[in-house]
Amino acid sequence: MQGGYRLQNITSKKTADKPVLSVITIVYNGEHFIERTLKSVVEQSYTNIEYIVVDGASKDNTLQQVKHYEEHIAFWISEKDKGIYDAMNKGLQQATGDYVLFMNAGDQFYDGTTVENIFKNDSNADIYYGDALIVDDNNSDLGLRRLRPPKNLTWKSFRMGMLVCHQSFIVRRSLAPLYNLNYKIAADIDWCITCMRSASKIENTGLVICRYLTGGTSWQNQKKALRERFDIMKKHYGVVSVISSHLAITARFIGQKLKGEKRTN
User: Fold this and answer.
1) Would you say 167 and 190 are in contact if contact means Cβ atoms under 8 Å apart?
2) Contact 77/66 with Cβ under 8 angstroms?
3) Domain boundaries, given as residue ranges, for the chain
4) What is the DSSP string of 114-157?
5) Which Pfam family, an example, fits this chain (predicted)?
6) Is the pLDDT of residue 11 over 80?
7) Residue 109: pLDDT over 70
8) Residue 25 near residue 55, CB atoms below 8 Å
9) Taking the model in full, what pTM does it have?
């Protein structure tokens, strides 16, 4: 099942001198969270947005909510997929914008002017990135993400963990490959590093770009996620570098845990 104004031969009006951002939302049985995402995207002040929604044949009222916003959605599809990254690949294959960004069910732009502010000063970078505010199921703020984006991001930065939230990572579409489906949980890390290795200019927006719904696949499958992350880091950075980085990450984690325990004593 498919829909969207693109299938009705309707072309959304875009400003010629501004880049088009393809926002892709992946969802499955997300009736409790999908509307906050849909509204966040369609209510952006920036007009050059191409919105794509990929639903994994939800069994709840997700699709009805998507159809409610259909006049603002370039393309949507609802069918079974082989997992989240297969669904993301479907979205990438439908994208026609200059840049792509994933904003999945429950996630939102920080505010209504976020995309406009991203492209305000510089519209020619290969990658734009920023910070992420964590929210819970009730959309209550839980504070900024623990891993903070560095001032200057390079493909080597992720040796110390995924320092930039996927929903705060905007990539020139021509540099964005399909996700590696051999990774079931951590393919987004591999994808981000691959994009950065191809980029010539990576721009720190200095903005909080997204409100990120806490949880997700990697949190639900911690052991498998860690194994996949190690394999990805080894592929990009080599064994010696990854082992030393993981020792530093472990030390950082222990230090943070000890600080937390001291606060509670």
Assistant:
1) no
2) no
3) 2-216
4) HHHHHTTS-S--SEEEEEEEEE-TT--EEEE-SSPPPSS--TTG
5) Glycos_transf_2
6) no
7) yes
8) no
9) 0.86
